Amino acid sequence: FQYEGNTEAEKYSLALSAISDIHSAIKDHASLWMLAQILFNEGDIDRAYTYIRFSWSETAFYNARLRSLQTAGILSLIDKTYQIKIEKQNKKLQDSLIRISVLSLLLFAALVYIYLQMKKLSAARNNLQVVNNQLKELNEELQQMNVCLQATNLELSDSNRIKEEYIGRFIKFCSTHINKSYAYRRMVNKKITAGQIPELSKITRSQDIFDGELEELYANFDTAFLHLFPDFVNKFNELLQKDNPIILKKGEQLNTELRIFALIRLGIDDSSQIADFLHYSVNTIYNYRAKVK
């Protein structure tokens, strides 16, 4: 087969011969080292090295000098080549280990970086949440301030409306009072000129004029106040006990109790001022207020 150049058949025959030598306990393994040489030439270093080492160990055990000389050269060549291959493999393994180590370090560094970024992101989210909560609180405060501002504006608008209403009423009342004073003075002059002093004295001592002026004052106040607060009586009664509401007499717009609290609604809370306006004693005002409470 060697002369024919049929390498596959040669390897097959040598393998059968080597197996036969091993089964027959023959220590001279010429077939095996020849097969190892062919495999070495083909580049199959691992099997060539295994076969030649086994053949050499058997030859050494057999102590065949000629066979040892024959196999020494190929053994040295195969062993050297095998060692070079092992060194290359070890070098590749070392390079691979270095690459793996570097990649592991890079991966670890990447994981550390990602972890730190996640911590920063978490801290940023927490800070953002704190800021959002603060903004929410500020918005709530602004809303409350807006509500208070709206209420203040309503109060100012209400106050301006009250002022406008009462200024108009006051001017009208003053004009009417001036006219009445002028007419009263003319009447007094006529009585004096006519010598009707006793009649004039009787008129000036009478309470009717004062009572009439006071009733007119009350009527003007009641009309002006109810024009500004038309539902005042109903709302005031809602604050009282259901079985004890304030019931107005026929023709009344407000009574004394309601006038007291109407003045309080207008911002006049001092009992002495209320007493002066309504022409009652301070004790009477206190009693009315205590009664309603």
From TrEMBL:
Keywords: Coiled coil, Membrane, Transmembrane, Transmembrane helix. Residues 118-155 form a coiled coil. The lineage of its organism: unclassified sequences, metagenomes, organismal metagenomes. Residues 21-275 form the DUF6377 domain. This is DUF6377 domain-containing protein. InterPro entries: DUF6377. The chain crosses the membrane at residues 97-116. The keyword Metal-binding does not apply.
